[in-house]
Design brief:
Layout (H helix, E strand, L loop, with lengths): L1 E7 L2 E8 L2 E5 L9 E7 L4 E3 L7 E5 L3 H6 L9 E5 L4 E2 L5 E3 L7 E2 L2 E7 L15 E8 L2 E2 H7 L4 H5 L4 E8 L9 E6 L2 E7 L7 H9 L9 E3 L21 E6 L3 E9 L1
Parallel strand pairs: 6-17, 8-14, 9-19
Antiparallel strand pairs: 1-2, 1-5, 1-14, 2-3, 3-4, 6-7, 10-13, 11-12, 11-17, 12-14, 15-16, 15-18, 18-19
């Protein structure tokens, strides 16, 4: 099932996408999956981020080949940072290059876990029982703030529009740890890998995070990015106004966003 959020007029609704038709849900899918009996055409609405998360938990350096390209040792436990939930945008919404840091804005394709029910101290073997579904994400990062200016990552990861999610939540993913993942800029492939290269898989991440904090329904876990990021290239590649960035994950879909100047 593909769960979407969409704007119709000034109101936001949730629904289940089937081909080009959306069956409208009566409430948040995290409360219940009940339909109103109404449906709308996908072409008639504007998709939003499929979730407005209470928290966006992100994992750094979680692909083996990405750790290698970054010149860093593989971590012995997940490296957690948090993105402001005000950075979340949906499909086709523009990524805005911030005026105070426009020059080194990078892209990061990510598989995102969406938690479906409250999780605390969950074991690895039960972890996937707490998953509502999966979506595509782009962990947009101002590398100059993150790596040179601030001494920590919060600002560089949390500018407005720096967390595109979507286009929907796919609830039926058989094996999240074996999915092809890629990112294209203007149709050129920049990242191409598989979630089989994850250092810590989805079950391990959920268990680890739930051991230190309560994971509320709607929490998004960004599982890390594969090799091919812009700052690790020679020459380096950063996003510029006019670019279109697309994250595609096997079995889920493709998330596309334009890039504009702030």
């Amino acid at each position: 099932m593909k769960i979407v959020s969409f704007k119709c007029g000034s109101d936001v609704f949730h629904g289940s996408l089937d081909d080009d038709s959306i069956r409208v849900l009566s409430d948040s899918p995290f409360k219940c999956v009940e339909f109103t009996g109404d449906s709308v055409s996908l072409g008639e609405v504007q998709l939003q981020s499929p979730v407005q998360p209470p928290n966006v938990l992100a994992i750094g350096l979680n692909y083996r080949r990405h750790a290698k390209e970054s010149g860093m040792a593989m971590p012995d436990h997940p490296l957690l940072f948090i993105k402001a939930n005000s950075s979340v945008i949906g499909p086709d919404a523009p990524i805005v290059l911030p005026r105070v840091a426009p020059d080194e804005v990078d892209y990061e394709a990510e598989l995102c876990i969406v938690i479906g029910k409250t999780a605390r101290n969950v074991s690895e073997d039960k972890a996937l029982d707490y998953v509502f579904g999966y979506t595509c994400g782009n962990d947009v990062s101002a590398r100059d703030c993150q790596l040179k200016l601030d001494g920590q990552w919060a600002r560089g990861k949390s500018f407005d529009t720096f967390c595109p999610l979507g286009p929907w939540i796919e609830t039926e993913v058989e094996d999240p740890d074996n999915l092809a993942i890629c990112l294209r800029i203007n149709d050129q492939i920049m990242q191409k890998s598989s979630t089989s290269d994850l250092i810590f898989n989805c079950s391990q991440l959920i268990s680890f995070l739930s051991s230190c904090m309560t994971l509320l329904p709607g929490t998004v876990i960004m599982t890390g990015t594969p090799e091919g990021v812009g700052f690790a290239r020679d020459p380096q590649v950063f996003l510029k106004s006019g670019d279109r960035v697309e994250v595609e994950i096997e079995g889920i879909g493709a998330l596309s966003n334009s890039v504009v100047a702030g």
